[in-house]
Amino acid sequence: MVQDILVASISQVMVKSNEKGIQVANDSSEHSLKETLYGDSLRLQQILADFLWISVNFTPAGGQVRIIVKLAKDKIGESIQLANLEFRIMHTGGGISEELLKQMFEGQGDASEEGISLVVSRKLVKLMNGDIQYLRSAGSSTFIISVELPIADKSM
After folding, report:
1. Which of 44, 60, 85, 89 is surrounded by the most beta carbons within 10 Å?
2. CA 30 to CA 42: how far, in whole Å?
3. pLDDT confidence bin for 105, thresholds 50/70/90
4. Mean of the pLDDT values across residues 42-63?
5. 38, 148 in Cβ contact below 8 A?
6. Which DSSP category does 152 fall into?
7. What is the C-alpha to C-alpha distance for residues 57 and 51, in angstroms, rounded to an integer?
8. Smallest Cα–Cα separation from 82: which of 2, 154, 152, 130?
């Protein structure tokens, strides 16, 4: 279930977020979290944990990280449904550095440890028919991670 993946990903950043006094909030609807999907749940967990970790690292002490999951379904043929999942990870503060963004999106220069994890995560997302966007606004930034996975048939 999406909920299990999300809970495991959030738990991986809780020690760091507690040290910095950062609140990590899951603002997703129950509908989006209850779906069971086919796919590599371990890799999806890794991807979400990486972006949550980066968000916590670039959030000032006392700030906030929020995650929202949106799910839309597409039907293909008689019996196959696809889930178009969108994970929005929002964090307060000035956002991540331009250098780190270039490492993730362009693969330029000597990649830092954080840059390597973002490059790997982006490649994994692309294998799931998705992509990553990064939006920056005054006082906050957002990673938008989209993936497409088949929905498990609950009647089986």
Report:
1. 44
2. 21
3. confident
4. 93
5. no
6. P
7. 10
8. 152
Strand partners, 144: 88, 133
What is the rounded CA–CA span in Å between residue 149 and residue 133?
Answer: 18
Question: What is residue 97's DSSP assignment?
Answer: -
Predicted pLDDT at 100: 82
Tokens standing for residue 60: 């000032």
Q: Is the dihedral of CA 114, 119, 125, 131 positive or negative?
A: positive
Residue with tokens 């020690």: 15
Tell me the mean pLDDT in the region 136-145. Answer: 92
Question: What backbone phi and psi angles, to 5 degrees, belong to 51?
Answer: -70, -35
Give tens-digit pLDDT for 55-94.
999 999 999 999 999 998 888 777 788 889 999 999 998 8
Nearest alpha-carbon partner for 130 in 75, 70, 78, 77? 70
Q: Which pair of structure tokens corresponds to residue 44?
A: 């999806």
Cα separations in angstroms, 49 against 26, 55, 109, 130: 13, 10, 24, 17
Percent of the chain past pLDDT 70, that is, above it, reads 94
In a 3-state reduction of DSSP, which class is residue 29?
Answer: coil
- DSSP conformational letter for 37: B
